[in-house]
């Protein structure tokens, strides 16, 4: 894959410093040097120590990424929300893990995306998962289609510039919910379980902001934005305030509301596209099991 830039700084600078400003890491530079890529300045091949001048045309060629043989292929169609040369956003169904685990090497979204990449015969075959969802959470998942694209979005993630909005159906004491509130409670491991998390004073800081959208009797629909990324954060925080998610058996959610998994959906994903510099705002409608309940509120 090729990328092109025009040098705008008047001060002379080395190629390696210029490329660092464009987001090219030392690791990617090494890959370009040793795995078949190249750096060109004004159509001539140069090394990273070459001195650039204003107006120079810089082009890098990044070698193709060969597939990881250990990642199996699951030839199941995926629901594509957005795709370009750099990113793929899909709508994840319930009951599907994001990535393989030791005892579950297939049947995940990563396996399905690999099958799609192979069917399309893309030059880059490595699967880069940028944002994950729990097995039973539905909605938007973001993949990068090459390593440079992944690295660029990782920078946005660290700066909290990738915004995900969730919708959740909750039960319990929904009358205590405010129109808008931020839950700030530390989360740590529940010592009685390998998987479960709980509120604990010595836990990691966690911050969950929500907006009340609908409420009827003992059920409510809320929009949620996470400001930290702790395991099971939404589920733990809403249990802690007495309003567990419907269908969330692990955290005390009601199991008689017509939904058999935590009622959580990633409905919106927004980020600044690192290469076009345009803000993308992608949405996904509620899964049918959640929509049926919402329609009754």
From TrEMBL:
<comment type="similarity">
    <text>Belongs to the pseudouridine synthase RluA family.</text>
</comment>
<dbReference type="InterPro" id="IPR006225">
    <property type="entry name" value="PsdUridine_synth_RluC/D"/>
</dbReference>
<protein>
    <recommendedName>
        <fullName>Pseudouridine synthase</fullName>
        <ecNumber>5.4.99.-</ecNumber>
    </recommendedName>
</protein>
<dbReference type="InterPro" id="IPR020103">
    <property type="entry name" value="PsdUridine_synth_cat_dom_sf"/>
</dbReference>
<feature type="domain" description="Pseudouridine synthase RsuA/RluA-like">
    <location>
        <begin position="86"/>
        <end position="240"/>
    </location>
</feature>
<dbReference type="GO" id="GO:0000455">
    <property type="term" value="P:enzyme-directed rRNA pseudouridine synthesis"/>
</dbReference>
<feature type="active site">
    <location>
        <position position="134"/>
    </location>
</feature>
<dbReference type="GO" id="GO:0003723">
    <property type="term" value="F:RNA binding"/>
</dbReference>
<dbReference type="GO" id="GO:0140098">
    <property type="term" value="F:catalytic activity, acting on RNA"/>
</dbReference>
<comment type="function">
    <text>Responsible for synthesis of pseudouridine from uracil.</text>
</comment>
<dbReference type="Pfam" id="PF00849">
    <property type="entry name" value="PseudoU_synth_2"/>
</dbReference>
<dbReference type="GO" id="GO:0009982">
    <property type="term" value="F:pseudouridine synthase activity"/>
</dbReference>
<dbReference type="InterPro" id="IPR006145">
    <property type="entry name" value="PsdUridine_synth_RsuA/RluA"/>
</dbReference>
<dbReference type="InterPro" id="IPR050188">
    <property type="entry name" value="RluA_PseudoU_synthase"/>
</dbReference>
<keyword id="KW-0413">Isomerase</keyword>
<dbReference type="InterPro" id="IPR006224">
    <property type="entry name" value="PsdUridine_synth_RluA-like_CS"/>
</dbReference>
């Amino acid at each position: 894959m090729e990328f092109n830039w025009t040098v705008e700084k008047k001060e002379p600078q080395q190629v390696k410093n210029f490329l660092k400003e464009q987001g090219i890491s030392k690791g990617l530079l090494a890959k370009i040097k040793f795995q078949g890529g190249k750096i060109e300045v004004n159509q001539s091949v140069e090394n990273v120590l070459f001195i650039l001048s204003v107006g120079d045309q810089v082009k890098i060629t990044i070698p193709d990424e060969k597939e990881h043989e250990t990642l199996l292929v699951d030839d199941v169609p995926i629901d594509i929300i957005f795709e370009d040369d750099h990113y793929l956003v899909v709508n994840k169904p319930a009951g599907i893990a994001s990535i393989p685990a030791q005892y579950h090497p297939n049947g995940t979204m990563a396996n399905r995306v690999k099958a799609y990449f192979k069917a399309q015969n893309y030059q880059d075959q490595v699967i880069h998962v940028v944002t994950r969802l729990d097995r039973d959470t539905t909605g938007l998942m973001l993949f990068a289609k090459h390593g440079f694209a992944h690295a660029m979005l990782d920078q946005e993630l660290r700066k909290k510039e990738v915004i995900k909005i969730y919708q959740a159906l909750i039960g319990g004491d929904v009358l205590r919910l405010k129109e808008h509130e931020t839950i700030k409670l530390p989360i740590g491991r529940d010592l009685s379980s390998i998987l479960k998390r709980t509120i604990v004073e010595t836990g990691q800081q966690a911050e969950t902001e929500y907006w009340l959208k609908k409420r009827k009797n003992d059920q409510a629909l809320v929009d949620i934005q996470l400001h930290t990324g702790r395991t099971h954060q939404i589920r733990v925080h809403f249990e802690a305030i007495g309003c567990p998610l419907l269908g969330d058996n692990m955290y005390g959610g009601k199991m008689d509301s017509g939904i058999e998994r935590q009622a959580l959906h990633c409905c919106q994903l927004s980020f600044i596209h690192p290469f076009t510099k345009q803000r993308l705002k992608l949405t996904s409608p509620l899964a049918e099991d959640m929509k049926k309940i919402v329609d009754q509120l």
